[in-house]
């Protein structure tokens, strides 16, 4: 082989080695930049996984409006009037109502948000499917008329609505429509009020006042009196205590119910998807609001079986050894544990 040919062969070999070296270097740089190495699966596996709370996905919702066309014309009219009554109760049945004067000026919607159709907003989704039913509070089987009138007499601090009135029929028609797809004797996810995790300590009205002043007072006012609408017939922001608020027989007078209600609905703009209160704030807020003065109601016929009273019912006598103070403000776990243990004993 001539010297020239040998030189060409050596140069080609060196060139090939250089090309291979450049390719390897480029591969290493690419791998460093984009992270495609053997350790990447481990990195992926160790990444934190956010667990979705099943209490807040696939919640039951109200029927869409167009489905009302399937109803007979008279039924449609009743349903629409029923929704109007829930939304603007006081316009028709308040102190200056156009039909009757039997309530305190609040609207059903003040406690049952979005006309009773808000998930976890104390809605009516489960009512049609579950009534008539036995209720410990009355010690009897109740129908929907009784349940509606409980709200008029307690939350609206007023008088019972005539069961044969157009207004009662309309409210029942609307409640039936909201729960029209719910299977009998079932409660869909998102119905009623969410049960907030309990505290290990008593609820604290003093801490609750701090929460109220920071997050509630701008709407409900310093003395809890709310803001009356311009027409003087209803409230833009309802009173949370005082002579025009719910009485102490109402469901929201139980601090657990109040905490569950405000946790995912208050202050204005909060939802179950975007809550603004912590669990502790919700409990303490309930303790503060429900420690304020409000109308009384004769509860002497409530809970004929005292063993059936809920853990946070604030009025004795009780079947358990705990005080009214602890039943109202907690801590609740000892009470719940006692109730559970004695239920097992009876079995």
Write the layout of secondary structure elements.
Layout: H1 3-34, H2 40-45, H3 73-87, H4 89-93, H5 113-116, H6 127-130, E1 133-135, E2 140-142, H7 144-153, H8 166-178, H9 205-215, H10 217-220, E3 227-228, E4 235-237, H11 255-263, H12 279-289, H13 324-329, H14 333-346
Antiparallel strand pairs: 1-2, 3-4
Helix pairs in contact: 3-8, 9-12, 11-12
What's the gist of this structure?
The chain is mainly alpha-helical and 347 residues long. Helix content is 41%, strand content 3%.
Keywords:
mainly alpha; two-stranded antiparallel sheet; Cytochrome Bc1 Complex, Chain D, domain 2; 3% strand; 347 residues
DSSP summary: helix tally: 14
Second rung of CATH, namely the architecture of the domain at 193-298 and 313-333: Orthogonal Bundle
The helical percent reads: 40-55%
For the termini, the CA-CA separation is 106 Å
Mean pLDDT: 91
User: How would a crystallographer describe the biggest sheet?
Assistant: 2 strands, antiparallel
Strand order in the largest sheet:
1-2
